[in-house]
């Protein structure tokens, strides 16, 4: 039980450490095996090859030094000049003798990172000399100074580092690190392009979902991403054709119904009158007129919706416009809104939507209050994943009777009208328009006592 919980926690921690983006993940996929591989190679190289080389080089220098020490000790002091000259020429070791000196031991920090040279030289010298000695790697960057304590003085040996050390040792490290950097650089550049193509596709899908006309996208990136892009284009085309066809068909039906309806109204007017049929004729006329109103309302909506393109427009200006129109017909409309709120919209459609809502409020109430504000979309980040997305929220409040909570959803149904002269299309059309913009609309209780229509549009 406990173990399972720990495992889950570990999994969560690991997932938290993993980069979330595709770019980060794919670079990780390339880098992790390479770094592991190189670590293994480095371990093999340093653990095997380097040790052997380093020990052999140190052994060579230590052997020469031991031989020279032996020579200096055994030969007469007048021969020393000859020994020193020969060692410089033939062994590349510079010697100096300090008569009567004593070796001072000072602790020195290691000066060569990563390489075991110092230790190897000390071990090799100790094995061969068995005399007190001291090595100095700090005084000269190109050589190492070995001091050996002889009975009557100190022998200084200056050996070039080249004899102990090969630059390829560092080159190998540089090669490993350099190739890792190069590879990740190349991976980042290539993956960035792939990720950009995917991100564009995601943005296009998002925009299309919000009812913004984006046109066909250019397929780019790897063949799978291209394929997704082309599939998206085909889907977009099919949906557009389907919506267009539907709108056209409904507009056609509404249009074609008008002629027989007109004929019916005329025929009713021509019918012989009489007190016994008067009431039925009046009801019949009313029905036909209602049908005419409905088809006309639907027709004007369908005609507008089919062709209008989304473009940046100021929502606040639209709201003020519609409110001013409503005031002209005698309604008391207040507007509370920011300076401006520009966003991609189909202005005529939004105007019709707001008009329907304000018209409804005007029919049922005396006071109307319209508010515009922006609210953050809960839990949603923008296409770049950085900034928060916003809703533009418009509320239309009135102080009328309102609609009981249970009947609010039903009021959106087409041709569902509570008034004898209504078409029942007002709210249905308003919702259709808002949803085509990627938003939604809801009916609530208003703080003014009547109905509140709250609609949200993605900014
Ligand atoms: N502001 C409002 N206050 C009270 N009732 C409303 C309000 N708005 C709409 N309604 C009710 O919802 C019904 C549907 O409205 P709508 O779809 O606009 O059709 P219509 O206005 O043509 O009847 C209305 O008939 C009315 O009964
Ligand atoms: Mg209405």
TrEMBL record:
Pfam families: HAMP, HATPase_c, HisKA. The keyword Phosphoprotein applies. SMART domains: HAMP, HATPase_c, HisKA. Its EC number is 2.7.13.3. One of its GO terms (molecular function) is kinase activity. It is a multi-pass membrane protein. Gene3D superfamilies: 1.10.287.130, Histidine kinase-like ATPase, C-terminal domain (3.30.565.10). Residues 252-459 form the Histidine kinase domain. Residues 192-244 form the HAMP domain. It is an enzyme of class 2 (transferase). Its main location: membrane. It catalyses: ATP + protein L-histidine = ADP + protein N-phospho-L-histidine. Signal peptide: none annotated. It is found in: Cell inner membrane. The chain crosses the membrane at residues 21-46, 169-191. Keywords: ATP-binding, Cell inner membrane, Cell membrane, Kinase, Membrane, Nucleotide-binding, Phosphoprotein, Transferase, Transmembrane, Transmembrane helix, Two-component regulatory system. It comes from the Bacteria. InterPro entries: 2C_sensor_his_kinase, HAMP_dom, HATPase_C_sf, HATPase_dom, His_kinase_dom, HisK_dim/P_dom, HisK_dim/P_sf, Sig_transdc_His_kin-like_C. PANTHER family: SENSOR HISTIDINE KINASE ENVZ, SENSOR PROTEIN CREC. This is histidine kinase. The lineage of its organism: Bacteria, Pseudomonadati, Pseudomonadota, Alphaproteobacteria, Acetobacterales.
